[in-house]
Every structure is written in structure tokens, then in C-alpha cells.
């Protein structure tokens, strides 16, 4: 199988695994604290990663690997924690499309850290993403989208996309300083490491949360770990083959799946308008892809 075919498979895997992970995360937050859910998902993958790198000479890795792994771990732990918190409070079919802003964040951060420069199509794409998000957000309660940006779930989602968008740039640097296997292990280990103090910061009670875990929760955590692993591996492979901005733009096709999953699993409303707004945002992302 050629590199082009593998890249297509990786992109499709990322597009489907991300909203699936969000569905499971939202289901788990019905009974458990979102930051506990975030910590467990990181920790399970960190334990699995031990078998991938146990015989690798870690001390031989360059300092850049550790530097960007730490920065990525901090951004990822807080970013994914805020994402799960947003999913607890808000609608998947609204929070999913907001993720389209990640490509905008990725372009800005990549410009300063990687020297990746967007062209006129990139700026036009940003405009379409903003217009599409206005349509999606105006569905809720018939109010102004500006008021909706003050809602707690939206604010958490915006914080999450800024942090995870920044993390994407650090992840690419980790890949450049090592390989895909080490990049995956780095994402898991440092995410688990820095998600632990977040539990103490938000005063999450371990004992109470562990008592809430039943067979159904264990199955969901297993499925979440699998979907997140697929998401991270496919993301890292895509980043190894193309620039951060266009890659994040391609991933935004998943917002349509988020809208459908919100309707299917959580009976969220205004499906048609959210699809229209999402399509406009995807069109903006396609234009951003052309910055290559």
C-alpha cells in the first residue's frame, strides 16, 4: 500500500474516530466528572504505551523531544479536559462544528512556530468558518450567536480548541524529533501526567469517582481508549505527511458526523440548519487546505 493510500486511510480514521470519542465521553460524563474521564482515558493508553517503547533507549532522545512533549502534554491535558467538560454541559451538534476554528488556530500558531504561511484562500476560508459558525450557533434559542459565546459550554470548547490546536503544532515537532511510535507514547504519558494535577485543581474525589464505575462504564472506557488511540495514531501519521493547517482543515469533515451523532444519540434539534452551517464551515476548511 502506497503512502498516498495510507494517508487517505489515516484521514478517514481521524474523521470518524474523533466524533465517536466525543459521544462516548459525553455518555460517561452523565455519571462521572469530566476531568476524571479525561484522566482515565489518558492513563489506560499510557499503560498500553509501555509495551511499545519499553526497550527503546529513551535517554538518547534529543532535548527537543522532551521540550515539545512537555508543552504538548500540558496543552493536551487541559485542552482535552476542557473538551470533556464542554461535552458534559453542551450539545455535541453545536460543540462539534465549533471545532472548525481549530484549523484557524493551527494556522496562526503554525505561522509563528513553523513558518507555514497561508495565502488568500486561507483567509477566505477563515471567513467562511466564521459565517458557518454564526448559522450553527444561532439555532439555539433564537438568540444572538454573540450571547451564546458567553455560555459556559462554549467557553470551555473554545479554550479546548485553542489548547489542542496549539498542541497539534507541538505534536508535529515531537514527530520531527523522534518517530510515530514515540510520538504516540509521548501523547499518552505526558497527557496522563499533566491531567492528574487537574483533578486536584478542580477538587475531584477519586474514591467517589471509582465507586461509580460499573460494567457499562468499563465497556465505554475500553471503547473510548480504542477510539482515542485510533484518533491519535491517525492524527500523528497525517501530521508526518502534511502541514498542520491543511491537516486540521481536512479533519473538519468530522463536524458533520458530530451533528448527526448529536441528533442520533442525544436527540439534539435543528439538524438541517446545523448541517448547512457545518457545510459552510467545511467549505472554509477546504479553502484553507489550498494554502498548500
From TrEMBL:
Keyword Disulfide bond present in the record's keywords: the answer is no
- Extract the PANTHER family matched here: EAMA DOMAIN-CONTAINING PROTEIN, INNER MEMBRANE TRANSPORTER
Family listed? Belongs to the EamA transporter family.
Q: What is this protein called?
A: EamA family transporter
Signal peptide residues are none
Q: Which residues form a coiled coil?
A: none
What are the alphabetically sorted keywords of the record?
A: Membrane, Transmembrane, Transmembrane helix
Q: What is its main location?
A: membrane
Tree of life domain = Bacteria
Where does the protein end up?
Answer: Membrane
Record keyword Nucleotide-binding present: no
Q: Which segments constitute the EamA domain?
A: 9-137, 153-289
Q: How does it sit in the membrane?
A: Multi-pass membrane protein
Q: What residue intervals traverse the membrane?
A: 36-54, 66-87, 94-114, 120-137, 153-170, 182-201, 221-239, 245-263, 275-291
Amino acid at each position: 500500500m502506497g503512502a498516498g493510500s495510507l494517508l487517505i486511510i489515516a484521514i478517514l480514521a481521524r474523521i470518524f474516530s474523533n466524533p465517536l470519542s466525543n459521544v462516548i465521553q459525553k455518555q460517561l460524563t452523565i455519571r462521572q466528572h469530566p476531568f476524571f474521564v479525561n484522566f482515565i482515558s489518558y492513563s489506560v493508553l499510557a499503560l498500553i504505551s509501555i509495551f511499545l517503547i519499553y526497550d527503546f533507549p529513551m535517554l538518547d532522545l534529543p532535548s527537543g523531544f522532551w521540550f515539545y512533549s512537555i508543552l504538548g502534554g500540558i496543552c493536551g491535558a487541559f485542552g482535552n479536559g476542557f473538551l470533556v467538560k464542554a461535552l458534559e454541559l453542551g450539545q455535541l451538534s453545536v460543540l462539534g462544528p465549533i471545532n472548525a476554528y481549530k484549523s484557524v488556530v493551527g494556522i496562526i500558531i503554525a505561522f509563528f512556530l513553523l513558518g507555514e504561511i497561508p495565502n488568500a484562500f486561507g483567509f477566505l476560508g477563515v471567513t467562511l468558518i466564521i459565517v458557518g459558525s454564526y448559522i450553527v450557533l444561532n439555532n439555539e434559542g433564537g438568540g444572538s450567536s454573540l450571547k451564546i459565546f458567553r455560555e459556559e459550554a462554549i467557553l470551555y470548547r473554545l479554550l479546548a480548541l485553542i489548547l489542542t490546536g496549539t498542541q497539534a503544532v507541538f505534536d508535529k515537532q515531537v514527530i520531527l524529533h523522534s518517530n510515530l511510535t514515540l510520538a504516540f507514547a509521548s501523547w499518552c504519558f505526558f497527557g496522563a501526567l499533566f491531567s492528574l494535577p487537574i483533578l486536584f485543581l478542580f477538587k475531584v474525589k477519586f474514591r467517589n469517582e471509582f465507586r461509580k464505575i460499573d460494567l457499562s462504564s468499563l465497556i465505554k472506557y475500553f471503547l473510548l481508549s480504542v477510539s482515542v488511540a485510533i484518533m491519535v495514531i491517525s492524527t500523528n501519521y497525517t501530521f508526518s505527511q502534511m502541514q498542520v493547517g491543511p491537516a486540521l482543515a481536512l479533519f473538519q469533515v468530522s463536524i458533520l458526523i458530530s451533528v448527526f451523532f448529536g441528533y442520533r444519540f442525544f436527540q439534539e434539534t435543528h439538524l438541517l440548519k446545523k448541517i448547512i452551517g457545518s457545510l459552510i464551515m467545511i467549505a472554509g476548511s477546504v479553502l484553507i487546505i489550498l494554502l498548500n
